[in-house]
Amino acid sequence: MLVDNAVNGDSRVQKAARSMADAGWDVVLLGQSPDRDRHRWTIGAAQVRLVPVVMTLAKRRRDYRRVILPRLFAYRRGGIAHHRRQWVKAWRADLLARRSAEGRRFLIRRAAARVLGRWVGFRHRQLALVEGRRNPDSLPERLRTAMWRALLGDRCWRRLEPYLWDYEFAFGPLVDALEPDLIHANDFRMIGVGARAVHRARGRGRDVKLVWDAHEYLPGIKPRAGYRRWMPAHVAHEREYGRCADAVVTVSQPLAELLHQEHRLPRMPVVVLNAPGGGPPADRAQEKVPDLRELCGIDADTPLLVYSGALAPQRGLATLIESLPQLPGAHAALVVPAPDGWVVGKVLDHAAELGVADRVHPLPYVPHWQIAPFLATADVGVIPIHHWPNHELALITKFMEYAHARLPIVVSDVRTMAAKVRETGQGEVFRAQDTADFVRAARAVLDDPAAYRKAYDDPELLAEWTWDAQAAVLDGVYQGLLADPAKVTAPVTALPDGTVAEEEEPEPGDPAGAAAT
Fold it and tell me: What's this model's pTM, rounded to 2 decimal places?
């Protein structure tokens, strides 16, 4: 298994590694070290190895070149250019104010001010040229991106984001040395590493199979501001290597259909939900689950809304914080990867401006097997995410974690999750980025939480959202590839009891076979 993170915090990858090892596979999970050291541990019977990735190619070649002429005259960075321009403007304003008193001396000083102003403006423009080389949204950068896309097509990532090769240099030799029978590449950066390893192995006469696990819809990700080349480069990389996979698994049926269509995959991807479960390792089974309310410093009668997951503007935390002044007495627990980080600091600053900082409680992640009981003492699980293509496609992990904690859910009107909440009655839907409507939905749930928890009395609802059922699907994909690749073409369904059912293959000549093909 290949993943481009440090494994800790990625519950899907951890659960997949452990459950496949429990199913009898010899699993080695290669991840990216957070530092320059190598790390090893185990998840159940699965080995974990973290590898340092040196991002040599993340810096572009032209960033190393010297730009002699502009740098010769350009101001140094740090604000001196703006200071000098303002100083010249001040001098001109002073001259104009004393114009009538100075006579001929005014003409001489005005000429000097003009000369100095042009010199300062020239040096400022030279600094802009130097800075423009570092600005990914500048016109030259946009033209460069368009040129490489037109010339190279799906190979353009080699010029636009060559840092993807750095993953190859770190992981490729290790994969070759392990001589795997099957490579499970997680997400869009690792599909290239996995595909090239398969090609090399087959060139040496070894038949290696490749599974691509697409965690999200890449064009639906919100890239970092100021990186126009990032998205087309990574989409091209994914498109070049995605078709090399012998089987594709993903997190929802709508995403499976998108991948099948956009990458022209020979088979429909198999759905493996991001369902909770997996259980603790044997040596940690007796660990006590932390008390959410105790960590927040509140009693059992205090209304508590909980948000669990990563932080980003599009996750909608601002809506939750802005609702608190209109929900007197209610507290918010934020279970996030870095509760002491600067992003959380900005959230707390926002809460302080609204006078509710004492009711917002940042808390660290807990191990994935503790999430449901940890969250269970809250009153409401909130998912205030904004409308963004990737947010519309799936029941995200926290949705199913809230459900296993038997929490009523307040979710924005993103397509898939809103439809499920309306269908089951397990919560309320509000208009994304509408604080007033969020307050309405939260009040409705807080006034009668038991009415929404009744949805979880249906045993089939939660049975569908268990990792054991999803692990059986993934195991079926592995076995099908190594035993008979044709078996993977049959739709695979997870039954509530965790078993796997495959639809029968149509007989040759059967009209259903033609339709399926």
Answer: 0.76
Closest CA to 236 of 158, 172, 141: 158
Classify burial at 134, counting beta carbons within 10 Å of its beta carbon; exposed 0-12, middle 13-18, buried 19 or more.
exposed
Q: How far is CA 481 from CA 265, 488, 491, in A?
A: 16, 7, 14
Going by C-alpha positions, the residue among 135, 298, 154, 130 that lies closest to residue 234 is: 154
Which residues have CB under 8 Å from 34's CB, separation 6+? 6, 50
Dihedral sign for Cα 44, 46, 52, 55, please.
Answer: negative
Report the interhelical angle of 164-178 vs 187-203 (nearest 10°): 50
Q: What does each C-alpha distance from 409 to 164, 273, 322, 412 come to in angstroms?
A: 39, 19, 18, 10
- Using CB atoms within 10 Å of the CB of residue 453, give its burial: 0 to 12 exposed, 13 to 18 middle, 19+ buried: middle
pLDDT score of 392? 87
Measured between alpha carbons, how far is 281 from 19 in angstroms, rounded to an integer? Answer: 11
Q: What is the pLDDT of residues 300-356, one digit of tens each?
A: 999 999 999 888 888 999 999 999 999 999 999 999 988 988 889 999 999 999 999
CA atoms in the 13 A half-sphere facing the CB of 341: 13
CA distance 93 to 407: 66
> DSSP string covering 384-444, please?
-PPP-GGGGSS--HHHHHHHHTT--EEEES-HHHHHHHHHHTSEEEE-TT-HHHHHHHHHH
Q: Encode pLDDT of 3-29 as tens digits.
A: 999 998 888 999 999 999 999 999 999
Structure tokens given for 178: 């392990």
User: Tokens 């859910």 label which residue?
Assistant: 409
Give me the DSSP letters along 324-384: GGGSTT-EEEEEES-TTSHHHHHHHHHHHHTT-GGGEEEEE---GGGHHHHHTTSSEEEE-
For the chain, the residue count is: 517
Which tokens hold the place of 53? Answer: 């990735």
pLDDT confidence of residue 374 = 96
- Residue 395 CA to residue 465 CA, distance in Å, equals 10
Distance, first Cα to last Cα, the chain = 30
- What mean pLDDT is predicted for residues 465-477? 93
pLDDT of residue 484: 58
Beta strand residue intervals within 158-302, DSSP E: 182-186, 209-214, 247-250, 270-271
Please list the residues that pair with 381 across neighbouring strands: 306, 409
Instruction: Determine contact, residues 316/309, Cβ cutoff 8 Å.
Output: no
Nearest to 440 by CA among 453, 450, 431, 451: 431
The confidence score (pLDDT) of residue 457 equals 92
The neighbour count for residue 503, using CB atoms within 10 Å, is: 11
Q: Please state the φ and ψ torsions of residue 341, each to the nearest 5 degrees.
A: -80, 170
